[in-house]
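=== RUN LOG ===
request id: a7f3
mode: sequence -> structure
chains: 1
length: 89
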Amino acid sequence: MLADVHAGLVADLFHDVAYTACEGKGAYRDGTKIHTSKTVSLDEAVVGLDLNTYKIKEFVPKITSLIEKTNIFATLAPTRLNSAMSRMV
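=== RESULT ===
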């Protein structure tokens, strides 16, 4: 399914921010290029997760160990774009 994604846009209306990404061209926040984190250890990571999915019952059991390994857990709306951006950068 994600193999068919070539561009993405997430509008964070609450913070008045727009995130965009295009395959082979990188990712941007309001037109400013952004980069992936250099964090490599899960215990130092902030994990963004959007549980607004129709497959939640299949998804959550698969990530429980990931959640338990992180110090900070955040639920963020732009996570779908983050997933797409990580493939495009």
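=== NOTES ===
The chain has one domain: 2-88.
The CA atoms of residues 67 and 73 lie 7 Å apart.
=== END ===
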